[in-house]
Amino acid sequence: MKEGYSSRFFCIVLTAILLVGCGKQSTASSDGAGDDPMAADTPGIGMDASDSAESRQMRDGVLQTDSFKYALKTASGSCEVYIDYPKNGPKDVVESLRTFIRSTLFENGSDTIADDPSEWVRQYCINRQRHLSKTLSEMGLQHVNEAYAPEEGVDIRLTCLTKQYATYEVYRYSYISHGAHGEYSDYGVTFRLSDGQRLDHILNKVDDTLYAHIKVGLREYFGVSTDEALDDICTADLSLMPMPTFPPYLMRDGVRLHYSIYDICAFDDGDPEVTIPYDIAWPYLTEAAKDCLGEMKDER
């Protein structure tokens, strides 16, 4: 992934590096263990609340976030979590974003989790630690060398915010066993700020012309100049116009397509990311996506 994210994804074999680059606004302390018996080995690094780069750009009341991060390390491994939590804004937007974050953290249900972002990040790490402990037990690994200890985490970050829409990007990683590599996923989701609606359909069609631009983006991503060189890298048949597992989403500079690992290439070649500028993508956008782009619609 570009824009400062790509280096994280390929270090997962050694140690997943996450949760960096935010200036502090306020801090809520925590010992990372508290009443959880699994957290007795090493206290967490605590929770930190701060404004992300995107939220600092929006001080007019459209949307404001606080960011929380938490880490927990025990004999079973380590877990880290980071979220940009919507603090202020239109009620329906704030509720929609909070529901998205909550469901992303607790995919198997969260009815018993308090409606508190500090508790969300803490409980996420506790839940994942229990999962790691159970997984190690099932594998017959009662004692794990610290250098090979499992690592898990999730980063739910506000990466684009305008007066019309907000886009979150989610990065989730898991390194459980002593295999060749771990696993991770990276995708984005755009929300309309007029009503909080999640936009899962950004493109209304994909034809040969648009896909030619996608291939240009893929060549630029991989640093090759010909389709033949691109074919040598990609394991998918590019003539079939493969699209990402997760839907495209809106960013400031265009429509972003973020391919997951194995979508079109081997694990070692990562998760290619292509951004199609709006002057190219405009005819292919759904009406809902065009509406989100506001003034751009009037210019075309």
Question: Could you explain how this protein is built, in words?
Answer:
This protein is of the alpha+beta class and 300 residues long. The chain contains 9 helices and 11 strands. It has helices at 6-9, 53-56, 91-105, 117-138, 208-222, 227-233, 278-281, 287-292, 295-298; strands at 26-28, 47-49, 64-74, 77-88, 151-161, 165-175, 183-192, 198-199, 249-251, 254-258, 273-276. A 6-stranded mixed β-sheet has the order 3-4-5-6-7-8. A 3-stranded antiparallel β-sheet has the order 9-10-11. The longest helix is centred in the middle third of the chain and has 22 residues, at 117-138. 37% of the residues are buried.
Question: Structural class of the helix and strand makeup?
Answer: alpha+beta
Report the biggest beta sheet as strand number plus sense, adding barrel if it closes: 6 strands, mixed
The number of distinct helices, counting runs of at least 4 residues, comes to: 9
The average pLDDT is 77
Order of helices and strands: HEEHEEHHEEEEHHEEEHHH
Shape: flat
| Poorly predicted spans | 1-51, 55-60
Count the E strands: 11
Strand content: 25-35%
Q: What is the helix fraction of residues, given as a range?
A: 25-40%
Radius of gyration: 20 Å
Please give the order of strands in the largest beta sheet: 3-4-5-6-7-8
- What is the straight-line distance between the termini? 30 Å
